[in-house]
Amino acid sequence: MTVLVFGRTGQVARELARAGGVTCLDRAAADLADPQACAAAIRAIRPQAVINAAAWTAVDAAEDHEELATTINGAAPGAMAGACADLGIPLVHISTDYVFAGNGTAPWRPTDPTGPLGAYGRSKLAGERAVAAAGGTWAVLRTSWVVSAHGSNFVKTMLRLGRERDELRVVADQIGGPTPARDIAAACLKIAETLRVEPDKGGIYHFAGAPDVSWADFARAIFAQAGIACRVTDIPSADYPTPARRPLNSRLDCSRTEAVFGLKRPDWRASLRDILTEIEEART
Ligand SMILES: NC(=O)C1=CN([C@@H]2O[C@H](COP(=O)(O)OP(=O)(O)OC[C@H]3O[C@@H](n4cnc5c(N)ncnc54)[C@H](OP(=O)(O)O)[C@@H]3O)[C@@H](O)[C@H]2O)C=CC1
Ligand SMILES: Cc1cn([C@H]2C[C@H](O)[C@@H](COP(=O)(O)OP(=O)(O)O[C@H]3O[C@@H](C)C(=O)[C@@H](O)[C@H]3O)O2)c(=O)[nH]c1=O
């Protein structure tokens, strides 16, 4: 199977590249701010499947740049889906827990009503809708709290701050599943391969690491595994004001993904060890 990936430098895109057998397009090759250029790239390369791993992911900055974020996260995936429909090939598009409002404590199912709290979530929801509206074969894989040794993520932020400070105040009322980028990459490839032969398996799917945890407890796990003696103090979200509101309940019900594709929720605690080792090796 020849797979075209949008994104090359991002967390998931890097892991797709590492898995091998894919062609990755970076921003210079296909800028998502120009949706028609993305469609043209698909028509020119004529792959057997497309995975979109590129996105505007700066949650707070999206509040001041919603139009551009919506072009990148909404219109560009829509144009990709149109080109894929024309060629009769599947598109796997990655989305986020931030399409949900985060009320309650029950894990969100793929069919649950959305209600994004901020511009990033709204722009990602626009992408989901545009992909579905194009009329081709598609899967939207919603994931959460992506972590890897590369790019910018919570693990790397905690390692940096934890080495500088004795104490960190971290929100304890936002709960979700940290998800290793490597597992997302493997899931996207498996879904693309399946949709090529079984297009009726398309739709919205959830895929998040287990167990669910608060950001504060995740920070404690990072410090414990990295051997960093930084104390973590639980705080409510209200005590950590940010331009964009985040959902309190980011739990994703991933049972449909396991039932249809055999993809189980990965245990982030095992992957965290590998990620920390990889970060440490790059430092020395
Ligand atoms: N990070 C997370 O915690 C979560 C991410 N997701 C979703 O998962 C997917 C992958 O995220 P992740 O790997 O973390 O992303 P990263 O933030 O690590 O990387 C984003 C990627 O998108 C590329 N990109 C951004 N803007 C453009 C543009 N205008 N044209 C072309 N490429 C662009 C970046 O390229 P460049 O280096 O040139 O900027 C980079 O390769 C996204 O759809 C995201 O919404 C879902 C849940 C959680
Ligand atoms: C640095 C820091 C953050 N926090 C809080 C802020 C926030 O609520 C939470 C996580 O911070 P981040 O800025 O890393 O998280 P954020 O950028 O909101 O992460 C999100 O990214 C997008 C792309 C997604 O799709 C989501 O699934 C999610 O992973 O931790 C603290 O409480 N204390 C701190 O010292």
Automatic annotation (TrEMBL):
Record pathway: Carbohydrate biosynthesis; dTDP-L-rhamnose biosynthesis
Name by which UniProt lists this protein: dTDP-4-dehydrorhamnose reductase
Protein family (similarity comment): Belongs to the dTDP-4-dehydrorhamnose reductase family.
Assigned keywords, A-Z: NADP, Oxidoreductase
Ranges where the RmlD-like substrate binding domain occurs: 1-279
One Pfam family named in its UniProt record: RmlD_sub_bind
Enzyme type, top EC level: oxidoreductase
Function: Catalyzes the reduction of dTDP-6-deoxy-L-lyxo-4-hexulose to yield dTDP-L-rhamnose.
InterPro entries: dTDP_dehydrorham_reduct, NAD(P)-bd_dom_sf, RmlD-like-bd
Catalytic activity: dTDP-beta-L-rhamnose + NADP(+) = dTDP-4-dehydro-beta-L-rhamnose + NADPH + H(+)
Cofactor note: Binds 1 Mg(2+) ion per monomer.
GO molecular function, one term: dTDP-4-dehydrorhamnose reductase activity
